[in-house]
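Let us work through a complete example step by step.
Step 1: write down the sequence.
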Amino acid sequence: MNNLLKISRIALGAIFIWYGILKFFPNLSPAEVLATKTIDILFFNLIPANISIKLLAIWELFVGIGLLFGFYLRWALLLFFVHMTLTFTPLFLLPELSFTHAPFAFTLVGQYIVKNVIFILMGIMIYKNNFDKSRI
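Step 2: predict the structure and record it as tokens.
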């Protein structure tokens, strides 16, 4: 089980690095518009979109590098869980982007958001394997 969890941690880290890198290049990330609109709402338009997307990219890279290499893993997982929690806010803040018929029929954006349930479960397993004394 430890090897499977290590591979899961590395895979999740690689995904976050990939997602983060894409956000450094305008219009390359399919999540750019969703992310900037959500950040605008959450932070009352105080952060310009071109800066908020770069901050999110840095956040995702830190999480990705932490997971991939096991560096500052506790911090990386903390940021991961905060990030994952915030990824669900568009379901409530931007339902017109998330649903064709709320709350049952998701758009592609809504499906993109809901798939994060799997990421969260992977994060929980990684946390329990590395820091929980009761381990899985």
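Step 3: interpret the result. The first strand starts at residue 99 and ends at 101.
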